[in-house]
Specification:
Radius of gyration: 12 Å
Largest sheet: 3 strands, parallel
Structural class: alpha/beta
Helix content: 25-40%
Number of strands: 3
Strand content: 15-25%
Number of helices: 3
Order of helices and strands: EHEHEH
């Protein structure tokens, strides 16, 4: 099963890419943010069409400045 991984998704290109994927694909999306993942998810979803399935978007905490924090993603 295909899915998208966007990191980071809290601003800039990653933020807009995540919004684009939500609007133009049916892919499940795993996005990351350093902190405040609930706020980032709300921001990504704000003002998107009602037809966008917000359940497709999972925002997980990821701070790439430390190895201990990134080891969580080793299962990918």
């Amino acid at each position: 099963m295909a899915w998208a991984f966007v990191t980071p998704a809290s601003r800039g290109i990653g933020f807009h890419l995540t919004r684009h994927l939500l609007q133009h694909t049916k892919l499940p999306i795993v996005a990351t943010a350093r902190k405040d993942v609930a706020i980032v998810k709300k921001s990504i979803l704000s003002e998107l069409p009602v037809s966008v399935d917000e359940e497709r978007l999972k925002v997980l905490p990821l701070d790439v400045t430390g190895n201990k924090k990134t080891s969580f993603f080793s299962f990918f």
